[in-house]
Design goal:
This protein is of the alpha/beta class. Helix content is about 40%, strand content about 10%. Helix 1 packs across helix 2 (about 60-65), helix 2 packs across helix 3 (about 95-110) and helix 8 runs antiparallel to helix 11 (about 305-315).
Length: about 350
């Protein structure tokens, strides 16, 4: 499998990254089966694994740690923090207090002395970005983290973090992990060009849009009740306008894939890897069958006319379902932030 350099780090990572979100209670509870999937991915040439503390409340990290015993040195290991890890209000976010504490927790669960890539899972409006960068920089200087990045940050916050790092003498975000797929192209307008400008790596999550682009979801087909569909049924409800639009598009994309001579999963993954900003696309298999289906996509080239047909179906820079953007800025999520009268009364 080909490798690409992760931003300016000099670290070479495989063009497919094994995402571990579905290992554990959120997806596949069979630890031995998950370990077999991880080993198969490594044997196929993947050297990049991405997990997060919040995935199945740390269970995913524990599974990955078990799988990497004896193979740790051959893997670029990435994990994330920010999501809630307990009832305590301070067991989440991007404060110095939590970053330092949760890094130790992740190191323990992963059974390793260092994390190659530590990522802030979402922006934390309550924490000053200098506070976050300062804590992460200290972890780098201590040797517990090799590099750090962001995930699902809007372009203005990516820029702010770069400026703060330069002005305050901090280490900086070396990569961004955004949602990106044929159905989720909003990042093409701002996030991806910003990452290119700052020579940041890009590691898109959900290139199959949570399974929509696997071909599993079709007009008239039963709605799956496993995996993501079991945890987030509203995101797969075929009666909503956005999902009806996806079903219509899948019929057309299957024609594009057939004409290109590839399965829809390969078309979707290859599309993401075609963008010049993208370093590695995260695949998130729950089963061995899904892994083996997706692995060949790393070697699929797409002709310009195929990409043009995709652009005609889903215009560049647009999201078929706005809810797939992965992050809602506080200014939009809270009416209180947009109404002067409510602020004056509070």
């Amino acid at each position: 499998m080909d490798t690409r350099t992760l931003g300016r780090t000099g670290i070479r990572v495989s063009t497919l990254c094994l995402g571990a979100m579905m290992f554990g209670g959120w997806g596949n509870p069979d630890h031995e089966d998950c370990i077999r999937i991880i080993h198969t991915a490594l044997d196929a040439g993947i050297n990049f694994i991405d997990t997060a503390d919040v995935y199945s409340s740390g269970e995913s990290e524990e599974i990955v740690g078990q799988a990497l015993r004896g193979r740790r040195d051959e893997v670029v290991l990435a994990t994330k923090l920010c999501g809630p890890m307990g009832p305590d209000t301070n067991q989440r976010g991007a404060s110095r207090r939590w970053i330092v504490q949760e890094c130790e927790n992740s190191l323990r669960r992963l059974g390793t002395e260092w994390i190659d890539l530590y990522q802030v899972h979402r922006p934390d409006p309550s924490a000053d970005i200098d506070e976050t960068l300062g804590a992460l920089s200290d972890l780098v200087h201590q040797g517990k983290v090799r590099a750090f990045g962001s995930s699902t940050f809007p372009p203005e916050e990516i820029v702010e973090a770069q400026w703060v790092a330069e002005r305050r003498g901090r280490e900086r975000f070396v990569c961004e992990q955004p949602p990106y797929s044929i159905f989720v192209r909003g990042v093409e307008g701002g996030v991806l060009p910003t990452c290119e400008r700052y020579r940041m790596g890009v590691i898109p999550w959900s290139p199959l849009n949570g399974g929509w682009l696997s071909g599993r979801y079709r007009h008239g087909a039963p709605v799956p009740t496993t995996g993501r569909a079991a945890r987030m049924p509203e995101r797969f409800d075929p009666s909503t306008p956005a999902n009806k639009r996806k079903l219509d598009l899948i019929d057309e994309l299957l024609k594009v894939a057939a004409d290109a001579g590839v399965p829809l999963t390969h078309l979707a993954l290859a599309f993401v890897l075609e963008h010049p900003a993208v370093t590695s696309a995260i695949i998130g298999p729950r089963t061995m069958e899904q892994l083996r289906d997706q692995l060949p996509a790393a070697d699929v080239p797409l002709a310009a006319e195929v990409l043009d047909r995709i652009d005609q179906l889903v215009p560049p820079g647009t999201n078929v379902n706005p809810e797939d953007a992965g992050y809602v800025p506080p200014a939009l999520a809270s009416s209180w932030r947009r109404r002067r009268g409510q602020r004056s009364r509070s």
